[in-house]
Amino acid sequence: MLDIVYIMGACIALLGVALAGIITDRHFVIIMLAVEVMLVASMVATVAFISYASDADPMGFVLLAALWAVAATETIALVTFYVYMKYRGVDFDVTKLSRMRW
Amino acid sequence: MYPTSVEFYAYAAITVIMVVSAALMFLQKRLLYSAIALAFVFAGSALMFLLLGQAMLALIQLLVFVGGLSTYLIVAIATEEKVTKLVSPYLFVIAAVVISLGLSLFIGDIGGTVASGGGTDVMGMAALAFKAYWPLFYAMMFLLFAATIGTVVVVKKFVKLVV
């Protein structure tokens, strides 16, 4: 089995790309997708720790299930916001968003 | 000294697919292509789970994220962007056939592995979900349920469905 350092390296690379995307992009949907990539990186890290631990704590699976639930909810919320903003004619540029209600 | 095993090359290929797809997500001009790139990141993570010996978790990741969420996201964005034609639809059919054949050739015993739990203690997970940590799992279910109902309400209000 590969050393866990390699898997962590992949997770950090993924996290770095997502963070760079959040910093450089101003589009609302892209930022939400970048958060999704960050959640994927944390899922891979969690599964790596579950696999490498000789006696894995059950909380690892609970954490993974929680990550799945949060990632799924985020995608659903993203589509909701996308439809809402599109039909309301709200700008997708996050720097132009100044209030929570339109 | 660098590792030279097949496992290492598989890991390197999966990592490259994931990182490049994540980068392409921001470099695309169209949202639809960004959503497709995210689907590749999800698929890469499922392959990484498989590499880690967690076939069951990989299957869940593939079914829920690639098959469910990515499709939902792509369809939602494609509907709003008024896409007339993406690339050739035949390209997707060919890609699906090649990926399926590749999976069946290289991971022939995946069915048996998944059936036996695929490195995951399925019964233990079920016991966690329904006995030890049931309030947490109910909270997750409520979260998803609330988000779904919210989407239905918003979409019903703003989108006029033509049947």
Question: Could you walk me through the main structural features you see in this protein, from its secondary elements to its overall organization?
Answer:
The complex is a heterodimer of chains A (102) and B (163). Chain A contains 3 helices and no strands. Chain A is an all-alpha fold and 102 residues long. Chain A has one domain: Helix Hairpins (Orthogonal Bundle), CATH 1.10.287.3510. In chain A, α1 runs antiparallel to α2 and α2 (28-52) packs antiparallel against α3 (59-88). Chain A is elongated. Chain B is mainly α and 163 residues long. Chain B has 7 helices and no strands. Chain B has helices at residues 6-27, 31-51, 55-81, 89-106, 110-115, 122-132, 134-158. Chain B is flat. Chains A and B meet through α1, α2 and α3 of A and α1, α2, α3, α6 and α7 of B.
Topology:
The complex is a heterodimer of chains A (102) and B (163).
Chain A: H1 4-24, H2 28-52, H3 59-88
Chain B: H1 6-27, H2 31-51, H3 55-81, H4 89-106, H5 110-115, H6 122-132, H7 134-158
Sum up the structure in keywords:
heterodimer, A: 102 residues, mainly alpha, 3 helices, B: 163 residues
Q: What is the total number of structural domains of chain A?
A: 1
Number of strands of chain B: 0
Mean pLDDT rating of chain A: 87
Distance between the terminal alpha carbons of chain A, to the nearest Å? 53 Å
CATH C-level label of chain A: Mainly Alpha
Poorly predicted regions of chain A are none
